[in-house]
Amino acid sequence: MSAIQRAQQYRQFTVSPITRHIGAFIEGVDLSQIESEDLKTELRAALFDFQVIVFRNQHITPEQQVLVARVFGDPDKVKSLFPRHESQKSIEKVESTPTGYRYGNDQWHADVTFSNNPPTGTVLYSHVIPPIGGDTLWASGTTIYDAIPKALQDYLETLEAVHTIDNSGWATYFDQLEDGEQQAQNARVNHPPVVHPVIRTHPVTGRKIVYVNPEFTVRIKGLPRQQSDALLNFLFYYFQQPEYQVRLRWEEKTVAIWDNRATVHYAAADYDYQERRLSRITFGEEQAF
Ligand code: SIN
């Protein structure tokens, strides 16, 4: 069924697919009022169906952002490294300011794959957006899997890869801090390298996913360095292709929710040190896979 046909099945709101494979705008929902079980069921279905769902013009408090995350999973399940909101500790502040630091999330990644149990999804809410630049892009790991030749799919299924925080945007972020060496050391101790299968199966949709990313995946286990690099770069090349992507031009008061198992994303760092402030909640489950 095409994205347009799938969109027409929703009854609680209007779904407008952005591309053929990934991303949809949702209209007719006020995320400050999401008590209805029918609404929650359709929101979950839309997330798994379109992988990234976007809501414009939403006026939600930090408490309401937590309630939105709870529709999809447990907001307290995952510990990442962003500074936390003063009162709502599950909210992370993804903030760049003219006098502060910019986070290095301008690499393709899925959130927190350097942990054994990464988040199943993320709710990102925009407060201040640069007049130009600072878009977020997502690529669909399921569509990329489907595009890979069958013989290679079969080989990839036999492989596992190492994910670590060591060479990620966090390393560059720590470099900017006075006590950065100590913070980097703590992060390495708290987040030792982990191993994930290169291909994973989405527990809800049953679709296969290419589950590596350039930010956190450093090598394929058991392969010589050059072969591992070559194979990973071959896979990463798919992420660059616009056919598998969706790109969001943020407006203030926009909420984007993504399926962190099925997608990778990239925050375009083309806004120098202009102000860009978003609040993020990652949500999870007992076991993501
Ligand atoms: C993230 O990488 O989770 C944040 C994305 C963004 O800042 O656009």
Sheet with the most strands, sense and barrel status: 7 strands, mixed
Compute the number of helices: 8
Bound molecules: succinic acid
Total domains, how many? 1
Structural summary, described in words:
With 289 residues, the chain is of the alpha+beta class. It has 8 helices and 15 strands. It has one domain: 4-Layer Sandwich (Double-stranded beta-helix), CATH 3.60.130.10. It has helices at 3-7, 37-50, 62-72, 141-147, 150-156, 169-175, 180-190, 225-240, and strands at 14-17, 24-27, 52-55, 92-96, 121-128, 136-140, 160-163, 194-197, 199-201, 208-210, 217-220, 245-248, 255-259, 263-267, 276-283. The structure holds succinic acid (SIN).
Quick structural summary:
27% of the residues lie in helices and 24% in strands. The chain has 289 residues and is α+β, with helices and mostly antiparallel strands. It binds succinic acid.
Keywords:
alpha+beta, 289 residues, seven-stranded mixed beta sheet, 8 helices
Question: What is this structure's SSE topology?
Answer:
Layout: H1 3-7, E1 14-17, E2 24-27, H2 37-50, E3 52-55, H3 62-72, E4 92-96, E5 121-128, E6 136-140, H4 141-147, H5 150-156, E7 160-163, H6 169-175, H7 180-190, E8 194-197, E9 199-201, E10 208-210, E11 217-220, H8 225-240, E12 245-248, E13 255-259, E14 263-267, E15 276-283
Parallel strand pairs: 2-3
Antiparallel strand pairs: 1-2, 3-13, 4-15, 5-13, 5-15, 6-12, 6-14, 7-8, 7-11, 9-10
Residues 94, 105, 111, 122, 124, 136, 265, 267, 278, 280 line the site of succinic acid.
